[in-house]
Design goal:
With 287 residues, this protein is of the alpha/beta class. The chain has helices spanning 18-29, 41-53, 68-82, 105-133, 146-149, 155-175, 193-204, 209-218, 222-233, 273-279; strands at residues 9-12, 33-38, 58-62, 87-90, 137-142, 180-186, 244-247, 252-254. The chain folds into two domains: 9-186 and 220-283, Rossmann fold; 193-219, no CATH class. Nicotinamide-adenine-dinucleotide (NAD) is lined by residues 13-14, 16-20, 37-40, 43, 64-66, 91-94, 114, 118, 142, 144, 187, 189-190, 192-195. Nicotinamide-adenine-dinucleotide binds next to helix 1, strand 2, helix 4 and helix 7.
């Protein structure tokens, strides 16, 4: 029986646990050869053993992404093991959090390095390899709608995920001539270790038991998000580019770029202070 991704070579970063693990398993189940990356060797080697035991093709690469050198080695691992790279899924994530005014430089560098530079370098190095080998490909970044919610205590995370929105749009535009699609998936709250730990902090911040139960019941499972990653990796899904998709078990939405709401005009211009004061009044807090 032919499967959707037979003959395709995919790389998944942060595949040892949580969502990345579910993506890797779902991609392998559709016939892809998988390069499974994680900074931690034990979980990613266990994942590789699981894929191998079901007849899949997989190689585990234990290394932290976040630098150009790590991205280069990861793409090279795909070429060495399977001869090419067709799909890059930049999922790896770990962050430092706390009140924005108290975060250290190291907190910022760690989080932006993992989430934003990790996604950027892996996407760019995959894009270069796909361009050079010909035949197109797919890059799938993982972001979060936390960035436009502006979640308190998650500043480096929100900034990183916002950066990934920008990355998707510019890469989609620049890589389209090579037949490479670039999209992002923004999972809603999903039942993984860091999300469950974050929920506990909300309990500490005063959510009632019923509110906590309702919150946890609303969480998705990683397997609910994986199908859209498989779709974007497939030849059919590569007809989409520059999109950011949110998905739950039952719904898929497109997160569109911010819309410009016209608040006023002035003719002939330029704006006076009083003119701006009047035009922007609907946005301002009451005096
Ligand atoms: N869980 C959610 O609700 C949720 C919501 C929106 C977005 N996301 C995003 O999904 C992705 C996965 O999150 P998760 O909840 O599955 O987390 P997780 O902690 O369960 O899994 C992340 C994996 O990435 C690995 N990792 C961390 N830093 C790495 C690095 N530098 N290089 C390689 N591997 C690294 C970890 O070891 C871990 O195995 C993240 O990008 C996260 O921001 C998650």
């Amino acid at each position: 029986m032919s499967r959707r991704l037979d003959g395709q070579v995919v790389v998944v970063t942060g595949a040892g646990r949580g969502l990345g693990r579910a993506y890797a398993l779902a991609l392998a189940a559709e016939g892809a050869s998988v390069v499974a990356n994680d900074r931690d060797a034990e979980p990613v080697e266990a994942l590789a053993a699981e894929i191998t035991s079901t007849g899949g093709r997989v190689v585990a690469v234990a290394e932290a992404v976040g630098t150009r050198a790590a991205a280069t080695r990861l793409v090279q691992a795909a070429r060495d093991s399977f001869g090419r790279i067709d799909v890059m899924v930049t999922n790896a994530g770990a962050d430092r959090r706390g009140p924005v005014l108290d975060l250290t430089d190291e907190d910022w560098e760690f989080t932006l390095g993992t989430h934003l530079l990790g996604s950027l370098f892996c996407s760019v190095e995959a894009g270069r390899a796909m361009r050079d080998q010909g035949g197109g490909g797919a890059i799938i970044n993982i972001t979060s709608d936390a960035f436009h919610q502006g979640v308190p205590t998650l500043a480096p995370y929100c900034v990183s995920k916002g950066g990934i929105y920008g990355l998707v749009r510019v890469l989609a535009a620049e890589l389209a001539p090579f037949g490479i699609s670039v999209n992002a998936v923004a999972p809603p709250a999903t039942r993984t270790e860091p999300m469950l730990a974050f929920a506990e902090t909300l309990e500490v911040m005063g959510l009632t038991e019923e509110q906590m139960d309702a919150l946890k019941a609303s969480f998705q499972d990683p397997e609910d998000i994986a199908p859209v990653v498989v779709y974007l990796a497939s030849p059919e899904g590569r007809r989409l580019t520059g999109r950011v998709l949110g998905v739950t078990r039952r719904e898929v939405v497109s997160l569109e770029p911010p819309t410009a709401n016209r608040l006023g005009t002035c003719d002939p211009g330029p704006w006076t202070f009083d003119g701006l004061e009047a035009a922007l009044a609907p946005l301002a807090a009451p005096a």
